[in-house]
Amino acid sequence: MATDRLLTTVLGLFQNVHDAPKTDQILGTTVSLLATLTNPLNISLLTSHFLSAHAIWHPHASPSQTCLRVMSVFSTAALRVRTAEVDGRLSHTIHGSEGWARAVARGADDRSARWQHLLCLTGVLTGFEGSHRQSLSPAMRRTLEDAVARAASIALADAKETNSPEPTRTAVAVALTYAFPLLSEQARASIDADALVPAALESMFGIEGLDGGMFIGADVNNDLRVDGLGLLEWPQTSPSFVRLQHVSSRPLVRSLGPLAKMAAYAIENAKSSQLVLHAQDRLLSFSTQLMQHWRANRLSQLEPLDVPAHLTQGTAQITWPIMLQTQKNIMFACAFVLQAVVSRALLDSRISGHSTLATTTASKTLLVLRNLHFISSRPGNSAFQVYSFIYLGSIDILTKNGGACVELLRQMFPPSASIGQVPLNALDRVLDLFYLSLAEHLPLSLTPDACETLIVRPAMVYISPASSRAMPTLRMVELFEAAHSAVLSVLCCPQNAPLTVKLVPPYAEILFESFPSRISARQFRMATKTIMQIISPPFPISATHPELAETLLEMMRFRADTTAGKIPLPPGPGESAAAVAAQESGEPAAMAAPMSEQTALVLAMIDSLPFLPLSIVEDWLTVAAISLNKVEDPDLREVVKRRFWDVLVSGEMDVERAALGVAWWGTRGGREMVLFGPAHDSTRSAPLMMSGAIVDEVERGCKL
After folding, report:
1. What Pfam families has UniProt attached to this entry (predicted)?
2. How far apart are CA 263 and CA 298, in angstroms?
3. pTM for this entry
4. Per-residue H/E/C for 543-578
């Protein structure tokens, strides 16, 4: 009788709106009643009135929060019922967990909307089957899964017919975020994917989700303070941080990963290709807003790795990490959605079969990645397969159309290239880094003029000696390397031979000026090796300008023999990781060995030997051997000797050059020069004599 009176009281409380504590009490009592009522009819009655209760669905409550709480009521009640059944305390009148589930499902009647039915059914499903509990029979679980999928599709259809998307979209998003991992593939396929795509995306980026990313923007500036040491402080109690925490605690933001996976599934299975393009446009719009809001934040002006040094201890340990983690979650969610878009662009013939549409899709995807690069450029944030697939897949599509490549580069063209100066704002440098890294992949699809204007010109801003005056941060090192890679990719293209002739001399000069102050020995060797390949056979430039190869070699020889430092160089930033990568990729061991400026130059000469014209191979074998023996440090000299031998025997040389190398080593004194120095060269130690002269090779001794 006490339970019946409590049921009557709760049903009465459902009719009016109450304050938050009273509402919490009503929800708790509802859970208790659902788990303890013994009459299935009362369970159905309570469910019916609860789903339509004014006390729960009042206009001042957050829709997503309310949906989650309603779902939690049924999930918690289901879990209690299952526990009571296992313990033998469940009334026999309910007929077990499945009987209780049927009683609850009967309460989802015409008094409430379909989206409310969805919340109820999802709560029951997660309560019984979540966390691998397997409380229901296979038949009952299939029935419940089908009911969830059918309720979701009908709710989305009703919202479209009545032109009132909210709160239906929010309810569907909240429910399916939790139900999707539990649904079979058959149940998922029965959901209307075309209707789910806009609902999922609006839930991600709308008011109940990320809300355009405003919480990372200019509002933070109002709360930043400078302490006595000149450090920035962003207090935990500041309105902007409280708002960040509020957004992060929203149900749809807290479960952003599962929501993004659900959206990706809907995009992959949508029947309409146009919906895929609309989804990409929505993502591009959001990412643009997010980057603009971040630009308005004063913290965006600082280098990411240097930010902690400019913050107070409390800010660096509490508020700032939460900002970074929120941004990271956003990037991962966007990556899941982009993966689905790129997959459709590759597999959907209605997109991939239309050249303009395919390249436009790829361009927009790369623009989204550019907008998010202030997040992905932080260490480790882009080191996952989904990001690589999106990036490289989009580039693959884009490079099929040279005009689209030009258009995209013009759209992204960095302002720094126009003024010829490294930008002061860290965010602008991040965008320049993305531009240069992308440009490196595109020269084969561009004309020489486009390469010079859109790739070489922006790269020279960071390569030129003037850029060395900028602060030598890790980001500047990345930009410097990206700029070199972009220029080398242009020089490698056969169609750019006239441009190569124009660029090689000044570029080589810049390269020598930059070593060893701005680039490591390993980077210098790789760059010079690439240039030597470009200006040697079979590239056409070697026929029109045969002097370039020897000129570059002579520059290396002269510096190695005269002004080069002989003290071992310290490893540069990331050199240890680069050495490991070099070894894993099969690069010579000398790449990872310690070296001085002098040995790096000699090794660069040796690296170039496999590419030289046949007519000068033997001469430069001799010159390299002479320079080798001018290395005074025996340990460093041994590294060079091993590399010399490696070039001769490892197969780097083709057959003709290898034959010349063997002859030089065996019969032309090469072995003696490399191992013992020029003084032991047997070809040079014999005195000059007239042909046919009689020489005593062995001093005659006395025969007495």
Report:
1. Pex8
2. 33
3. 0.87
4. HHCCHHHHHHHHHHHHHHHCCCCCCECCCCCCHHHH
Decide if 533 is inside a domain: no
**Closest to 199 in 3D by CA, of 125, 120, 275, 271:** 275
Token pair for residue 75? 């999930």
In sign, the C-alpha dihedral spanning 384, 388, 390, 393 is negative
Tens of pLDDT, residues 169-197: 999 999 999 999 999 999 999 999 999 99
Cis peptide before 588 (omega within 30 of 0): no
In a domain, 52, yes or no: yes
Please calculate the CA angle 608-614-615 and round it to the nearest 5 degrees. 110
Per-residue pLDDT tens digits for 256-306: 999 999 999 999 999 999 999 999 999 999 999 999 999 999 999 888 878
- The range of the structural domain enclosing residue 158 comes to 2-191
The residues, any chain, with a CB within 8 Å of residue 365's CB and separated by 6 or more, are 280, 338, 341, 342, 345, 390, 394
Q: What distance lies between CA 620 and its chain's CA centroid? A: 44
Confidence of residue 572 (pLDDT cuts 50, 70, 90): low
- Determine the Cα–Cα distance for residues 71 and 180; give it in Å rounded to an integer: 14
Residue 693: HSE in the Cβ half-sphere, 13 Å Cα cutoff? 9
Please state, in angstroms and rounded to a whole number, the distance separating the CA atoms of residues 435 and 433.
Answer: 5
How far apart CA 309 and CA 302 sit, in angstroms, is 10
Q: Return all residues near 280 (Cβ < 8 A) that are at least 6 apart.
A: 338, 341, 361, 364, 365, 368
**Strand, coil or helix: 637:** helix
Q: Supply 578's token pair.
A: 């680069």
357-387 per-position pLDDT tens digit: 999 999 999 999 999 999 999 988 888 899 9
* CA nearest to 461, candidates 418, 494, 515: 418
- Point out which residues pair with 648 in neighbouring strands: none
**What is the DSSP secondary-structure string of 354-423?**
SHHHHHHHHHHHHHHHHHTHHHHTSTTTT-SHHHHHHHHHHHHHHTT-HHHHHHHHHHH--HHHHHTS--
Does 568 sit behind a cis peptide bond, omega within 30 degrees of 0 on the bond before it?
no
- Rg (C-alpha) for the chain, rounded Å, is 35
Residue 605 located in a structural domain: no
Instruction: Give the position of tokens 């490991």.
Output: 580
Instruction: Tell me the C-alpha distance between 375 and 377, whole Å.
Output: 6
Structure tokens at 410: 């013009």
Say if CB 524 and CB 488 are below 8 A apart.
Answer: no
Residue that the structure tokens 């005593």 belong to: 696
At residue 311, φ and ψ (nearest 5 deg) are -115, 155
Show the 3-state SS of 212-240.
Answer: HHHHHCCHHHHHCEECCCCCEECCCCCHH
Of 619, 614, 605, which is closest to residue 655 (Cα–Cα)?
A: 614
d(CA 156, CA 177): 15
Give the Cα separation of 391 and 308 in Å (integer): 30
Inside any domain, residue 561: no
Cα–Cα distance between 155 and 39 in angstroms, integer?
A: 30
Contact 90, 84 (CB under 8 A): yes
Q: How many whole angstroms separate alpha carbon 151 and alpha carbon 232?
A: 51
| Count of domains observed in the chain | 1
Q: Would you call 120 helix, strand, or coil by DSSP?
A: helix
CA distance 454 to 436: 10
Which two three-digit tokens encode residue 498? 């006239």
Name the maximum alpha-carbon separation found in the chain: 141
Q: Please give the single-letter amino acid code of residue 590.
A: A
State CA 507 to chain mean position distance: 30
Separation between Cα atoms, residue 538 and residue 543, nearest integer Å: 8
φ, ψ of residue 21 in degrees (nearest 5): -60, -40
Residue 412's nearest CA partner among 369, 464, 466, 473 is 369
For residue 448, give the H/E element and its range: helix 448-451
Cβ proximity of 478 and 439 under 8 Å: no
